[in-house]
Specification:
Keywords: Methyltransferase, Transferase. One of its GO terms (biological process) is methylation. This is SAM-dependent methyltransferase. GO terms for molecular function: methyltransferase activity. This protein is of the alpha/beta class and 273 residues long. It has one domain: Rossmann fold (3-Layer(aba) Sandwich), CATH 3.40.50.150. 35% of the residues lie in helices and 14% in strands. Strands 1, 2, 3, 4, 5, 6, 7 and 8 form an eight-stranded mixed beta sheet that branches. Strand 4, helix 8 and strand 5 form a beta-alpha-beta unit. Helix 1 packs across helix 2.
């Protein structure tokens, strides 16, 4: 790890830090909390998007680890919180290998402090839109063996890419490099064709200048030719809900209807044949 964390601009909001704030974290600044408070106060209940997404990602890592895949690349990983990918994977596997990728300098600094004594987990500061540079980082080259199955995690990150940045081609770039038996997890904001979607999407676009909600059909297209595993694409609160740990709040298949906010983020897990 030779590169140093870049200086942090306290005047500009960060996607990772806003997400951290919505999840109850403390690694954020006033400019991030201002955006988070818009969702908390002006769009009551919208925090559920962040929580249900996080819970689904935890379940996805468990599903992948139980299948025997031992290597994970987490794109747009965000700030460390409870039940990070490496912690979940370690419940099922002995010494899984995990590479976190994010472009926020605070993620790099905090992640490296947290993982200082973990030789099998690293944090790489890189831009999701530059896959070649990610692939060529010494940390990833050291940990990830592309001759063995790899799990690619795109949790709540692809909706921050505009159409002209071709998120589907980005996923395909990586899937061409992984072997049969590898798995790809994607969660993303979905268009609800309602006022809540319009307001939330407009706020993030005006704040960060990018991003787009996508339809279920468009989300499935992101997987390309991969085999989407059961139960297919579902809203995060429903996806493998029965597999949630007892201490993790989750909607069961026969319980209450999801809120309008919980319906605005979906996910699926796919396998490379």
């Amino acid at each position: 790890m030779t590169d140093r964390p870049a200086p942090v601009d306290h005047t500009q909001p960060s996607i990772a830090r806003v997400y951290d704030y919505l999840l109850g974290g403390s690694d954020n600044y006033a400019v991030d909390r201002e955006i988070g408070d818009f969702f908390i106060k002006d769009l009551p209940g919208s925090q559920a998007i962040a929580f249900t997404n996080r819970q689904a990602m935890i379940r996805a890592v468990g599903e992948i680890a139980r299948s025997g895949v031992r290597q994970f690349i987490d794109f747009g990983s965000g700030l460390p919180t409870a039940d990070n990918v490496h912690q979940v994977a370690q419940r099922y596997l002995d010494a899984p290998r995990v590479v976190y990728v994010d472009n926020d300098p605070i993620v790099l600094a905090h992640g490296r402090a947290l993982l200082a004594e973990d030789d099998n987990t690293v944090v790489v500061r890189a831009d999701l839109r530059e896959p070649e540079s990610i692939l060529n980082t010494p940390e990833l080259q050291r940990l990830i063996d592309f001759d063995q199955p790899v799990a690619l995690l795109f949790s709540a990150v692809l909706h921050h890419l505009n159409d002209d940045e071709k998120p589907g081609e980005l996923v395909a770039w990586w899937t061409r490099r992984i072997v049969s038996g590898s798995q790809v997890y994607i969660s993303s904001f979905r268009s609800g064709s309602n006022e809540e979607t319009r307001v939330a999407e407009a706020k993030l676009q005006s704040t960060f200048g990018r991003g787009r909600w996508r339809s279920d059909e468009e989300l499935l297209q992101l997987f390309g030719d991969l085999e989407v595993l059961d139960p297919g694409l579902q809203i995060c609160s429903r996806w493998h809900a029965a597999a949630a740990a007892p201490d993790v709040a989750c909607i069961g298949p026969d319980e209450r209807e999801p809120t309008v906010w919980e319906r605005l983020i979906s996910c699926a897990l796919a396998r490379k044949p």
